[in-house]
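FAQ: What does a ligand-bound record look like?

Like this one, built around pantoate:
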Amino acid sequence: MSNTLNLFQSIKEYRTWRKTVSGRIGFVPTMGALHEGHASLLRAARRQCDYVVLSIFVNSEQFSPGEDFEKYPRNLISECQLAEKEGVDIVFAPNSDMIYPEGFSTYVEETQLSQPLCGKFRPGHFRGVTTIVLKLFNIIQPDIAFFGMKDAQQFFVLEKMVADLGLPIEMKGEPAVREVDGLAMSSRNAYLSNEDREKAPLIYRTLKETAEILKTGESVRGTLKSARKKLEEKGIKLQYLQARRLPDLSLEQTDVLDKNVAYVIALAAFIGKTRLIDNFILEPCS
Ligand code: PAF
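The answer part, i.e. the structure of the complex:
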């Protein structure tokens, strides 16, 4: 185990290091803009693995035109400081030409779980995510990969990719880290104005209440409709609010949830110009 942080900006440097180590590698892929949610993933990796590798790469392929790719925060020095504090061994921060060299034309796509929810509103997003994560997995060769469950659909899509392609990687989904008022930590929270920030906790509060009601066997349609109304009355514009079965993200055929099945109540909404996502996972009773 090493204690000092190494920053590698080329695939070659990383591969040279990788050949020298044989312990368990824990991997936390990120796009930077690190916050407490990422720190908790790094701590989980630190606890469970011999080496912790953090990647920082703002992946153009998962942003649609008009999204925030250009303005996404980039500050490698402060990211490395946080990484060092969390006991990270390696920060892998390649540049775009290294990941997507001239003429790059190979993509990987999960074709079912990636379709609903965010997939419907961000065409090409999950194709971008699976492509970069597979490429990073091939470079890093981790034993365990850690992801935040705020992005629950992303986790299930990637877990399916790992299963379908037979990758020897254990996938860990860690609970979302929240501010004291319940707002899920996200790099995009920084875009919220003071007024928007005051409204934001209503998202998780409503998700939690909705989950509690659905657990009692109430109508899914009616419950989601009132939740939607409550949020929209406060100026939160919903893109979607849905209850989906886990882990395949399919819709329930009936209007009540099955107590023996796990669900995700998933939401995407705009507060002002900022798009936020969040979810509540309903565990089965037994
Ligand atoms: O969750 C993220 O930050 C990104 O989608 C990921 C997994 C690092 C891929 O770019």
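Follow-up question: can I read anything off the structure? Yes, for example: The beta strands are 6-8, 25-30, 51-56, 90-92, 144-148, 170-174, 236-245, 263-271, 274-282.
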